[in-house]
């Protein structure tokens, strides 16, 4: 007679129900416990495939604040990556958007998915309820202890941006951030502060500003950049000589405010964003940014859901710096005026080459 689930439970010193949850890849167990049970089952020769249901339907849960693909196209690319992976594995994906006032769990019960991918931000109580559904779950651009997740290396991205600005000789670098309840934004803000420490430079907290809650990145960053300029003017100080924004939409808004105020980009204020959305390369001047493989976030999220025993439940994807005209090195004196006026054509060519 072959190995039974009872044999696995006895060998692992857990209940039959715990073995069942572990081998079905259901939430409710720590990843360490699940991996231990899977290894015990494998060592005993137990065929866990008979317990593990095939994922046929996947719900991609997106917070309503992210569901404006025209204003913030980041998650449209993530969703495209999810859809690509689902096609490859014969999974039917469905998009569900929800906010704090919605009965998300009831909606999910109506969807009846075999697995759930949560992207971006979600309220803690909603995440707790999702875990309680006992469905395979993966977090994309989001992190929580004990759950499978796929993220970009936000800290490394912030370091790349800041070291690039420091390398230009910029020292009064402002940061325009969003809500720190968002994992990725919090990591970028931390990377911004850490860069000053690692470079041995003085960090000025007044240069870190958060956009007002409830505002989209464009509107919020416009107001935030104006506050930075107004505060510098009120103190009789020069404005920041560089701005690192938490995403490209915020960076582009900050750039418009600077240009409208008579500041030159990058001669007076260098500006860099994050995510490399399509509009970044078409801006005038073209926006430097930290490039993210957004579709890979979605693809790897689906692939991680399908893995029985992943080597790591937390995947971190690399990022890279794309230098464009908004941070192109320019001299900072009056003799550079002619060169600055002649630069746009050369900078445009440089932007296309990157």
From TrEMBL:
PROSITE patterns: HTH_LACI_1, HTH_LACI_2. InterPro entries: HTH_LacI, LacI/GalR-like_sensor, Lambda_DNA-bd_dom_sf, Peripla_BP_I. CDD domains: HTH_LacI, PBP1_LacI_sugar_binding-like. Pfam families: LacI (PF00356), Peripla_BP_3 (PF13377). GO terms for molecular function: DNA-binding transcription factor activity; transcription cis-regulatory region binding. Gene3D superfamilies: 3.40.50.2300, lambda repressor-like DNA-binding domains. Keywords: DNA-binding, Transcription, Transcription regulation. It comes from the Bacteria. Residues 3-57 form the HTH lacI-type domain. This is DNA-binding LacI/PurR family transcriptional regulator.
């Amino acid at each position: 007679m072959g190995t039974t689930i009872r044999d696995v439970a006895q060998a692992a010193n857990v209940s039959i129900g715990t073995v069942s949850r572990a081998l079905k890849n259901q939430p409710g167990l720590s990843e360490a416990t699940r991996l231990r049970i899977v290894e015990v089952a494998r060592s005993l020769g137990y065929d866990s495939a008979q317990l593990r249901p095939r994922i046929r339907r996947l719900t991609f849960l997106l917070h309503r604040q992210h569901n404006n693909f025209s204003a913030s196209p980041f998650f449209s690319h993530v969703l495209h990556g999810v859809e690509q992976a689902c096609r490859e594995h014969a999974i039917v994906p469905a998009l569900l958007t929800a906010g704090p006032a919605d009965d998300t769990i009831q909606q999910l019960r109506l969807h009846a998915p075999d697995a759930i991918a949560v992207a971006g931000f979600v309220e803690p109580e909603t995440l707790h309820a999702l875990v309680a559904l006992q469905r395979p779950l993966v977090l994309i651009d989001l992190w929580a202890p004990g759950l499978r997740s796929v993220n970009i290396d936000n800290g490394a991205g912030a370091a790349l941006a800041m070291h690039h600005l420091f390398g230009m000789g910029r020292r009064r670098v402002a940061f325009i951030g969003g809500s720190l309840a968002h994992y990725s934004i919090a990591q970028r803000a931390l990377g911004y502060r850490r860069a000053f420490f690692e470079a041995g430079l003085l960090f000025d907290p007044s240069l870190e500003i958060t956009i007002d809650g409830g505002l989209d990145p464009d509107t919020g960053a416009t107001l935030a950049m104006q506050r930075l300029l107004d505060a510098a003017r009120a103190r009789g100080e020069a404005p920041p000589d560089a701005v690192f924004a938490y995403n490209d939409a915020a960076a582009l808004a900050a750039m418009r405010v600077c240009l409208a105020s008579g500041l030159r980009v990058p001669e007076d204020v260098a500006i860099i964003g994050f995510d490399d959305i399509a509009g970044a390369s078409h801006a005038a001047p073209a926006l430097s940014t930290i490039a993210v493989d957004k579709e890979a976030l979605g693809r790897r999220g689906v692939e991680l859901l399908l893995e029985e025993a992943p080597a790591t439940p937390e995947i971190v994807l690399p990022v890279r710096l794309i230098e464009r005209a908004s941070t192109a090195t320019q001299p900072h004196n009056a003799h550079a005026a002619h060169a600055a006026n002649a630069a746009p054509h050369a900078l445009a060519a440089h932007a296309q080459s990157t």
